[in-house]
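# step 3/5: fold
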Amino acid sequence: MAASMIQFQNVQLTLASHAGKVNILRGIDLDVAEGEALGLIGPSGSGKSTVMMVVAGLERASSGLVRVAGHQLGAMSEDALAGFRRNHIGIVFQSFHLLPTMTALENVAVPLELAGRPDAFERAGEELQAVGLSHRLGHYPGQLSGGEQQRVALARAMVARPRILLADEPTGNLDSETGEQIIQLIFSMRARTGATLLLITHDPLLAQRCDRIAHLSDGKIARITAAAAPFAVAGE
């Protein structure tokens, strides 16, 4: 049996608002194995993206145990959490989040530069080649299509070989054909690196490509089901 990569035990997150306290997560129990692909699905406001933020250490749980890649996140300082993300987590967002004044190559190199890697640009070039953008290294985000920008974002997420890839609605701003190409890339890169994948989506068919599906409702996991047809990478 594979070791656990993500463990939540009775995780709760409560945030303050003008109307009083809001319970975002209401007792989440979750265990994701190393190398597993888990789909998170549920209506808007169900807590899907918040779970991802807690996994990445970008939000702190109000209570409960959060253990990710062997680290108990609740016991870590902000500096330690930043190092943890740099070393273990890759994130792909719906809206790309590329730096507009940097080229594709520079955007992908950023995580390695922050880590002090002398081969940052060499590795960035290799990762962009892996997503089919070796001809776009010197282009800025504004010169790229939406699909190309998401490929750059995926290359940036994977360039440091993270143990966990978090994908938050990665096809939400793309047409269906381009979105399918991005999903193919996400799953092929996950297969190539052995990364654990947490895929947040509103699309049940997309979630079915994972190994299991966690169905969220009102800040709780209503149920976890096995996927009907886990994803097969093209060519395998």
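# step 4/5: annotate
The longest helix spans residues 176-193.
# step 5/5: archive (pending)
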